[in-house]
TrEMBL record:
GO biological processes: sterol biosynthetic process
Native species: Methyloceanibacter stevinii
Main localization (coarse): membrane
Family as reported in the entry's similarity comment: Belongs to the squalene monooxygenase family.
Localization per Swiss-Prot or TrEMBL: Membrane
Topological type in the membrane: Multi-pass membrane protein
GO cellular component entries: membrane
Lineage: Bacteria, Pseudomonadati, Pseudomonadota, Alphaproteobacteria, Hyphomicrobiales
Location of the FAD dependent oxidoreductase domain: 6-52
One annotated GO molecular function: squalene monooxygenase activity
Protein name: squalene monooxygenase
Enzyme Commission (EC) number: 1.14.14.17
Gene3D superfamilies (UniProt xref): FAD/NAD(P)-binding domain
Residue intervals of the Squalene epoxidase domain: 149-390
Length: 440
């Protein structure tokens, strides 16, 4: 193994591997370190939007479609949950995504990285310090080994130790918990699409991860501890929102497998590194998985990093590209999880708008896929949906003579209006108060 490298990449998750491959493709030598090679077996990102697929293909993963069973993923189907027909939202311009178990993506990327002569992969190996000389601890021997690289790329995930070593605050905040459950031998209501349902406890996401397997992601509030302890209670809270065949498959799955619980966290994507250390992927920031954008954003970090002239250029490009996907994730999660009547009205208005407007469906999917990251698009969509919800709610209250409530309702909708306003203010990102942490 070489003793000097152009780049040292910390963490061989999806984004670290992608970074190593991208630098190697440019002829740079790379030291790729992974502390826990089995970390990829946990429940984590499985759905990748078209923008992420495009970058993976550039990195040499041309046959992603080959292990995406039942064809490409064409978008999402929203289930309003009131007995109304589901709404199909396709990616614009025939674009497609992929979905499969997290470890399959990481295995494939690691295989590609290890096959490249420019990359030295060391595992288990954990970055232990940056000062005075960067070093890692070899997990097999326990020896500390100096890192001799011109630059360091930290891809060590949302609890990034590199951030800590750089003296950057861990500004991540817990949002909720998500159960990953595998359903066997069940059909999705529409194959080739991810499905978003409004559950009793929180939003539900479902998509195919294998020829015979479907993933169910159940979001529950952090306060609902009984749902995490008691699978009968979980089933009772979730099953009514599911199509009958999926509810049946859930009952079978809960009898044989434990749900994989993961905390969902938020950290705003504003700090991209310091000195010769660049952050990529979840080490920069993370959002709720509802919009499934973590991997695609991380891959865009990699693309921007290798194309950037310097650290400031990289940070400037990515701050601008991540602002709207981050706000969209927080706004949509609030719309789907807030049980109050104004949030429910906005949710209903969103479904009504999607149902009647092909242009709005297209705009939403371009925002979701992060192919359109303009604040004006986010603002226009959110304003239209929010305004319709407010007009309908206030109109009904006035017709019924609930004048005193109308003032309160207007105040509630006014608080939602800060989302589209934030979209229009260049560089500004709205963070809901409960997700704000030190450093935001
Ligand atoms: C429940 C859940 C569902 C999700 N679903 C989706 C989805 O459908 N689509 C999507 O795009 N995103 C999703 N995400 C987000 C997605 O999983 C992350 O964005 C993605 O895994 C980030 O990749 P990463 O390589 O930056 O970090 P990680 O995947 O966290 O990888 C970091 C790697 O660094 C290693 N490491 C850590 N510290 C060190 C150290 N000191 N030295 C060496 N190595 C180290 C770790 O062992 C790990 O292998 C989901 C997240 C959760 C929690």
């Amino acid at each position: 193994m070489r003793t000097e490298h152009d780049v040292a990449v910390i963490g061989a998750g999806p984004i670290g591997c992608a970074a190593a491959i991208a630098f190697a493709q440019r002829g740079e030598t790379v030291l790729l370190l992974e502390a826990n090679p089995r970390a990829a077996e946990r429940f984590a990102g499985e759905w990748i939007h078209p923008s992420g697929v495009r970058i993976l293909q550039k990195l040499g993963l041309g046959d992603l479609a080959a292990f995406t069973e039942n064809g490409p993923r064409r978008g999402f189907v929203a289930h309003p949950g009131d007995g109304a027909d589901p709404i199909v939202l396709s990616y614009p311009d025939g674009m497609t995504g992929v979905s499969f178990e997290h470890h399959r993506l990481v295995d494939e990327l690691r295989r590609r990285a290890v096959s490249m002569p420019e990359i030295d992969y060391v595992a288990p190996a954990k970055l232990s310090k940056l000062e005075p000389v960067p070093a890692y601890v070899d997990g097999d021997t326990g020896a500390e080994v100096a890192i001799n690289a011109k630059r360091i790329v930290a891809a060590d995930g949302r609890r990034s130790g590199t951030r800590r070593l750089l003296g950057l605050p861990d500004g991540s905040v817990g949002i909720s918990f998500m159960a990953g459950i595998v359903l066997d031998d069940v059909e999705l209501p529409v194959e080739g699409y991810g499905h978003v349902l409004s559950g009793l406890a929180g939003p539900i996401l479902s998509y195919r991860i294998g020829a015979d397997q479907v993933r169910l992601c159940l979001d529950v509030p952090a306060s609902a501890t009984e749902l995490r302890r008691d699978t009968d209670a979980l089933y009772a809270a979730v099953a009514p929102a599911l199509p009958a065949p999926m509810a049946k498959a859930l009952a079978v799955s809960l009898k044989t497998r434990k749900p994989a619980w993961m905390e969902t966290r938020f950290q705003t994507r504003t700090v991209y590194g310091r000195g010769n250390v660049a952050l990529v992927g979840d080490a920069v920031g993370c959002t709720h998985p509802l919009t499934a954008v973590g991997i695609s954003l991380g891959l865009k970090d990699v693309e921007a990093l290798v194309d950037s002239t310097d650290a400031a250029d990289y940070a400037r490009r990515q701050r601008a590209r991540a602002r709207v996907p981050e706000m969209l994730s927080n706004a949509l999660y609030q719309v789907f999880s807030d049980p109050r009547y104004d949030a429910r009205a906005i949710r209903q208005s969103m479904f009504d708008t999607w149902r009647t407007s092909a242009a709005e469906r297209r705009r939403t999917m371009a925002l979701l896929a992060a192919t359109d990251v303009r604040g004006s698009t986010f603002a226009t969509s959110f304003f239209r949906i929010g305004f319709r919800a407010a007009r309908k709610t206030v109109g009904a209250e006035m017709r019924e003579g609930h004048w005193s409530r109308t003032r309160q309702t207007l105040a509630r909708f006014a608080s939602w209006s800060t989302w589209p306003i934030a979209g229009l203010v260049p560089g500004y990102r709205k963070i809901p108060a409960h997700l704000k942490a030190a450093g935001h």
